[in-house]
Amino acid sequence: MVSYSSAISALFVVVASLIIPTSNGVSNKVLTKICSRLTPDPDQCVTILQSDLRTASANLPKLSLISLDLTGRQANHNLKTFRELSKNATHEPKLKNDFDACVRVYKDIKLKIKAAYLLSKKGQYRNVSDLSQAKELAFRCGRDINSLVGNELGSSMVLRLYTSISVNRYIARTNA
User: Global pTM?
Assistant: First the structure.
């Protein structure tokens, strides 16, 4: 005869297996493959993707949206920071102008990321070419400002853009 506690344990295992989703997300091997093709720092690319808990259970289309979401968050952070830097650079007109230029650049970058996100939602991974333009804008903004903060912000943005570009190009190739 089956004991009461054994029956409860078996029932718990069955219910738990139905409730708890199994991880059928993109494997670490695939993340490494995605990040090693284009990004200047593949390990950091993988770290960026894994920093979002949704990645563990994401399929490739969802990974595209996650990467673009992470990239958009970085753009929002950079825009906010450049606005603050500009506001505080009242006694340094050249630096203030440079920060103001980056504010304009990041407004444009945000629009390009939003457009890429909408294309990704439609499954049009090949058409996210605006991300390459955004990458060049972020690179120039970071390079043109003679500021450690500006360089760090620019580098973080460029790496996230590379990550999103890599994810979307990988999906476009595998769906071809």
Answer: 0.83
